[in-house]
Structures are given as C-alpha cells and as structure tokens.
Amino acid sequence: MRRAYNSVLRLPQLSPCPQCGEPARPHRVCPACGYYKGRQIFTTTVGD
Ligand SMILES: [Zn+2]
Prior knowledge:
Helix content: under 10%
Strand order of the largest sheet: 1-2
Bound molecules: zinc ion
Oligomer: single chain
C-alpha cells in the first residue's frame, strides 16, 4: 500500500521558461532571466 507518487506530487511544478529554458514556476517571473509573459520584469546581472 505504498504510494510511490507521494514524493512526486509534492514537488513544485516547474516548466521550462520560454525565454531561457530554465525550469521556472508557471505564472511567475523566471528567476533566471527575469522574463514573464514575454516581458522582462527585472534585469539580471548575469553576463556582461
Ligand atoms: Zn527564463
């Protein structure tokens, strides 16, 4: 009667960011690139 799914269901749902491809939470600003719905919400300092 072990439920193998339990641990899986508790994981936060992550979907690849359409902008950078990093796993990010849906309906949230991507922490990796700062994009949300095709708009850049904040500027990341990664790079330059
Ligand atoms: Zn991103």
